[in-house]
TrEMBL record:
PROSITE patterns: ABM. It comes from the Bacteria. InterPro entries: ABM_dom (IPR007138), Dimeric_a/b-barrel (IPR011008). The keyword Oxidoreductase applies. The keyword Iron-sulfur does not apply. It holds the Pfam family ABM. Gene3D superfamilies: 3.30.70.100. Residues 1-86 form the ABM domain. This is Antibiotic biosynthesis monooxygenase. One of its GO terms (molecular function) is monooxygenase activity.
Amino acid sequence: MLRMEIRPGMEDDFERVWQEVGDSVTDHPANLGQWLSRSAEENGIYYIVSDWVDEPLFRAFETSARHLEHRQKLHPYRSGGSMTTMHIVASLAGSAGGGR
């Protein structure tokens, strides 16, 4: 999960560019999908969740020219952020999600 701090006033442009360049991530054969969320509590804070087949394949993408190009397109909007990797240990579907 990536937490991104976006420069004030650039949020709409960031969202547009993120969607425009997203296929550089999701077209990678090891990517399962990614999601962009905007904080409901903090202005200019976004969270990107990206799901991968495994961490070694994600790390290979992370150091690729493809990823560097993706990052360069989003960099002008970013003022800070952090990244956390994690492994899902359990999943529970809610009744509204059709999992029952």
